Amino acid sequence: MGARRKRGVLPVADSELTAATVHATADRLEVAAPRRLFAVRTRSGLRLDAYPYEVSPDGLRFVVNTLVAEPTSTAVTIVLNWTDALTSR
């Protein structure tokens, strides 16, 4: 079997998407140093088994699930014993 050369996209680290060339032969695997592709602002913590991006089959285009605005917190009101108010009427 002959040598195969592919480019792999590495997961997002430090808000950057990186890629590395991988050269595989029957008895060796060589991985070049990763190089920066572009900066991203991904939505983190959604799923541990999924990446926040998808690469087209030709490796030239990316779809990235990014933040379009800074997240804001919303107040939550918790009402305890609300059923007591219903029975006292």
Describe the protein's topology.
Elements: E1 4-13, E2 16-24, E3 29-31, E4 35-39, E5 53-55, E6 62-64, H1 82-87
Compact overview of the structure:
The chain contains one helix and six strands; from the N terminus they run E-E-E-E-E-E-H. The protein has one helix spanning 82-87; strands at 4-13, 16-24, 29-31, 35-39, 53-55, 62-64.
Task: Describe the 3D structure.
With 89 residues, the chain is mainly beta. The strands form 2 sheets. Strands 1, 2, 3 and 4 form a 4-stranded antiparallel beta sheet that branches. Strands 5-6 form a two-stranded antiparallel ribbon. The protein has one domain. Strand 2 (16-24) and strand 3 form a beta hairpin. It contains 1 helix and 6 strands. The chain has one helix at residues 82-87, and strands at 4-13, 16-24, 29-31, 35-39, 53-55, 62-64.
Contiguous runs where pLDDT drops below 50 for at least 5 residues: none
Question: What is the gyration radius calculated from CA atoms?
Answer: 23 Å
Total number of domains: 1
Number of strands: 6
Helix count?
1
Overall 3D form: elongated
Distance between the termini: 83 Å
Structural class by SSE content:
mainly beta
Q: What's the pLDDT, averaged over the residues?
A: 77
Q: How much strand content do the residues show?
A: 35-45%
The helix content, as a percent range, equals under 10%
**Major beta-sheet overview:** 4 strands, antiparallel
Write down the secondary-structure element order: EEEEEEH
